[in-house]
Write a structure and sequence with these properties.
The chain is of the alpha/beta class and 287 residues long. It has two domains: 88 residues, Alpha-Beta Plaits; 193 residues, Rossmann fold, CATH 3.40.50. 30% of the residues lie in helices and 31% in strands. The protein is built from nine helices and 14 strands. A seven-stranded mixed beta sheet has the order 10-9-8-11-12-14-13, with helices on both faces. α4 runs parallel beside α5. The longest helix is centred in the middle third of the chain and has 16 residues. It is globular, with a radius of gyration of 19 Å.
């Protein structure tokens, strides 16, 4: 038998919650995000909320982990084989763009002609591509790299590194992923190894965008929360090249205009929005 903590949280907090549980000894963590198909019999999610299910070998360890992060939920006893099988069933190859797929490491489906596949281990958390904000960014990066082959790509708040990994597989030029969380950055490095991407092909940096050396980028993606996007606007703006494209996500639909206004002050022109399940991606161009 094993033990599970079943914790609900705002969708934007799920990946951080998963990381905290992994640090406290979780054997595996399943994220159920808004809009994600759930297995039969699974309780529905509340609007805007998700569910984090962390599995532990020991009840006391699970209870301590809950207390450490300020939660009061009691561990639930489950059969070992049930959660592990169900957890894998939740993660299947998923098309994220016209030419691109994301898949777990246990699925070895080959890429079709002209397509690429990014392997992401769901146990590493920090972004598997299933959340609408990540999926919207992946889709547009795919489209932009088709329009601008070999373009340089900057992924701000890279998390699992999934956007940077996809950019490399689609033939981007210089690719950089920034993070302020060293645990996330290490997960991104492991993701690059899992995808057979040579060390040094992606510059992983524990820094803010304004600390990056070198020229600006033709494509910049920032999938982070609104307040951070607004606070970082002057620094992010400086890393977008003339006629470059800026993709902002991590935004609820009603937050789109506030994000646009923060970057219009920096000389950007809103070009398009795309919504999915209450979330939005904003695209802007410099000048």
């Amino acid at each position: 038998m094993s033990w599970a903590l079943v914790l609900t949280a705002p969708a934007a907090d799920l990946e951080l919650l998963a990381a905290e549980l992994f640090e406290r000894g979780a054997l595996g963590v399943e994220l159920q995000e808004p809009g994600q198909p759930l297995m039969p019999g699974t309780p529905p999610l509340s609007p805007g909320a998700g569910r984090c299910i962390a599995h532990f070998a020991d009840r006391d360890e699970a209870a301590r982990s809950a207390a450490d992060i300020g939660r009061t939920e009691a561990p639930i006893e489950i059969a070992d084989e049930d959660w592990s099988i169900a957890w894998r069933r939740q993660h299947r190859p998923m098309r994220v763009g016209p030419r691109s797929w994301v898949q777990p490491p246990w699925d070895d489906a080959p890429a079709g002609p002209g397509e690429v596949r990014v392997v992401i281990d769901p146990g590493m958390a920090f972004g598997t591509g299933s959340h609408p904000t990540t999926a919207l960014c992946l889709e547009r990066v795919d489209e932009l790299l088709a329009e601008r082959p070999g373009a340089d790509v900057l992924d701000i708040g890279t998390g699992s590194g999934i956007i940077a990994l996809l950019a490399v597989k689609l033939g981007a030029g210089r690719v950089t992923g920034t993070e302020n969380d060293p645990v996330a950055l290490e997960a991104a490095r492991r993701g690059a190894e899992l995808n057979g991407i040579p060390a040094g092909r992606i510059a992983w940096t524990l820094s803010g965008p304004d600390e990056l050396p070198g020229p600006a980028y033709e494509i910049v993606a920032a999938n982070i929360l609104l307040n951070t996007l607004v606070d970082l606007a002057p620094r992010i703006a400086r890393k977008v090249s003339p006629r470059g494209r800026l993709l902002l996500s991590g935004l609820l639909s009603e937050q789109a205009r506030a994000a646009e206004e923060a970057y219009e002050v920096e000389g950007f022109v809103p070009l398009a929005r795309k919504e999915r399940e209450g979330w939005v991606r904003v695209e802007l161009s410099r000048g």
